[in-house]
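Cross-check.
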Amino acid sequence: MTEHTSSGWTGGKNAFGDFAPGMVHYTDRVLFDEVWERDGLSKRDRSLVTVAALTALGKTDQLQFHLGFARQNGVTDKELQEALLHLAFYCGWPHGMAATSVLKNIVEQQD
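Predicted model, tokenized:
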């Protein structure tokens, strides 16, 4: 699910192939190979920040990947549930409910 190889990330390439080379480059080489690898925040913390931002914006398509990625980066299901509940009060109940539905589907599919 992490879509990572020894030569770098492939999520953008897997999603777009040759259709959108700029999007592939910036997703795989800049965002995941550079930004996500910076010192200063752990991948776990970056995942929590990303989940919070995507939840606040109501971006459930992107949450599908990032909630699963957060789990791989060490965030527990209980922590994600608690974070989404907390976020519901700050970014709106519908966004919190939608994000929780995405998490529930991920957990049920993987367990």
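Residues 56 and 92 are 7 Å apart (CA to CA). The first strand starts at residue 4 and ends at 5. Passed to J.P. for a second look.
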